[in-house]
């Protein structure tokens, strides 16, 4: 029987949203062949370690970040030469977070950590550009049928923040009137009773997303469905 020398890594692509732009969380490598280069956080899975535990551990160790939303995205390994350190299979994860709610700090294998606007990323090694592209495609698809966009907003927001978020993710204009009507028809947003001014217009009502109500509705067969022409 031929011996195997394959390692498994986990690489989370964590999206953040702020001021109308999408961001990606990157670290600067402290060691190894890519020392000094910006890369996605991540690392090797330990023996007998579940993948979900490994990706959360690596993210916390290298960036001091814990995110509520992490889902397995894709397996990258068809190119056996994707990593100069050897035959390494990467299990990529999609993460969503609000940068204002996180205290990022570089540690262990990272000499620095920062958020980069998705359209202004530094040159990335390995196949990390492909991982980010796959993550964006998943995000753009999933916001149509799951309310995952709320993980990118703060706990409280005005409706224009939600509109801008969807426009930014989908990279296109949306029908604001129909979007508002559809979202409010779900009954998942609750008003806080406060008003917030975000531009030159009138102050808008402040909302919060009712996660508990969504979970209850989902368990009874409710489908979150947003379609755009």
Task: Lay out the secondary structure.
Blueprint: E1 7-18, E2 21-29, E3 38-39, E4 43-44, H1 51-63, E5 69-76, E6 88-97, E7 110-117, H2 128-142, E8 157-158, H3 159-170, H4 176-185, E9 189-196, E10 204-209, H5 211-219
Parallel strand pairs: 1-6
Antiparallel strand pairs: 1-2, 1-4, 2-3, 2-7, 5-6, 8-10, 9-10
Describe what you observe in this structure.
- 26% of the residues lie in helices and 29% in strands.
- The chain has 229 residues and is of the alpha+beta class.
- The chain has two domains: 7-144, Nucleoside Triphosphate Pyrophosphohydrolase, CATH 3.90.79; 155-220, Arc Repressor Mutant, subunit A (Orthogonal Bundle).
- A hairpin with a 7-residue loop joins strand 9 and strand 10.
- The longest helix is centred in the middle third of the chain and has 15 residues, at 128-142.
* Biggest sheet architecture: 7 strands, mixed
- Backbone shape: elongated
Distance between the termini: 56 Å
- Evaluate the radius of gyration: 19 Å
According to CATH, the fold-level topology of the largest domain is Nucleoside Triphosphate Pyrophosphohydrolase
Give the helices and strands as they follow along the chain. Answer: EEEEHEEEHEHHEEH
Report the CATH superfamily of the largest domain: Nucleoside Triphosphate Pyrophosphohydrolase
CATH level-1 class of the largest domain:
Alpha Beta
Short description:
The chain has 5 helices and 10 strands. The protein is of the alpha+beta class. The chain has 2 domains: 7-144, Alpha-Beta Complex (Nucleoside Triphosphate Pyrophosphohydrolase); 155-220, Arc Repressor Mutant, subunit A, CATH 1.10.10.10.
């Amino acid at each position: 029987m031929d011996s195997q020398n394959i390692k498994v890594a986990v690489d989370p692509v964590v999206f953040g949203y702020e001021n109308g732009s999408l961001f990606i969380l990157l670290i600067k490598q402290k060691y190894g062949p890519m020392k000094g280069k910006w890369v996605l956080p991540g690392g090797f899975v330990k023996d007998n370690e579940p993948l979900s535990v490994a990706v959360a551990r690596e993210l916390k160790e290298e960036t001091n970040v814990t995110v509520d939303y992490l889902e397995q995205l894709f397996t990258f390994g068809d190119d056996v030469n994707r990593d100069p350190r050897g035959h390494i299979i990467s299990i990529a994860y999609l993460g969503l977070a609000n940068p204002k709610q996180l205290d990022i700090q570089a540690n262990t294998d990272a000499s620095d950590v920062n958020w980069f606007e998705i359209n202004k990323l530094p040159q990335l090694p390995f196949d990390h550009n492909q991982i980010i592209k796959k993550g964006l495609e998943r995000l753009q698809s999933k916001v149509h049928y799951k309310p995952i966009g709320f993980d990118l907003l703060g706990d409280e927001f005005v409706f224009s923040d939600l509109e801008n978020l969807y426009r930014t993710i989908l990279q296109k204009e949306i029908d604001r009137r129909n979007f508002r009507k559809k979202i409010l028809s779900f009954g998942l947003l609750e008003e806080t009773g406060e008003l917030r001014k975000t531009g030159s217009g009138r102050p808008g009502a402040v909302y919060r997303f009712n996660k508990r109500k969504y979970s209850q509705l989902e368990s009874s067969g409710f489908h979150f469905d947003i379609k755009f022409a």
